[in-house]
Amino acid sequence: xxxxxxxxxxxxxxxxxxxxxxxxxxxxxxxxxxxxxxxxxxxxxxxxxxxxxxxxxxxxxxxxxxxxxxxxxxxxxxxxxxxxxxxxxxxxxxxxxxxxxxxxxxxxxxxxxxxxxxxxxxxxxxxxxxxxxxxxxxxxxxxxxxxxxxxxxxxxxxxxxxxxxxxxxxxxxxxxxxxxxxxxxxxxxxxxxxxxxxxxxxxxxxxxxxxxxxxxxxxxxxxxxxxxxxx
Length: 231
Prior knowledge:
The protein is of the alpha+beta class. The protein is 16% helix and 47% strand. The protein has three domains: 1-30; 37-77, no CATH class; 80-227, Calycin beta-barrel core domain (Lipocalin, Beta Barrel). Strand 2 and strand 3 form a beta hairpin. The protein is globular.
């Protein structure tokens, strides 16, 4: 058999296979696009919860998905009850007007005091010894904004305010800034982000400006959950 004839046969077989595959593909029914997950209308309050029943139901439906999120799916709301529980802190900060540089470790216990209000007690050890802090947090679910006030035993207060943003993967970040305060004769400003990485840990990244200078890195502290939140 000549080379020319063999080439013709291969071309014919290839065309026949293409027609068969195209026909088989055409016979397969098309899958309908997945139904988007949306929030039901209404603002039904739930006792001992910051979010509405409709928002809590939306969270449950999104967490029950067995597919990737698609265009049209509603954004998962942030539930501040996430913070309730006992967390172990650990991180490193540089030298600054607030103290020496080095490692910080400690424990923070957070409890709910009202629908969207929380408070906590921090017991920690830093490069210059032990210190404590009392905090209050208030979340506004409509504005998606979180306020955290920290009364530090070292002699200063931080008022962290800013929005809580989320993404389609269900991760949230609190982007905050604090008003300027004077400490040890220096003017200090702070800002940063708190990345809620998972149900069991979140990360605080901080920046500091001293005496009007540019903001610089002020270290990273991790919070890791020790006790699951109580319902």
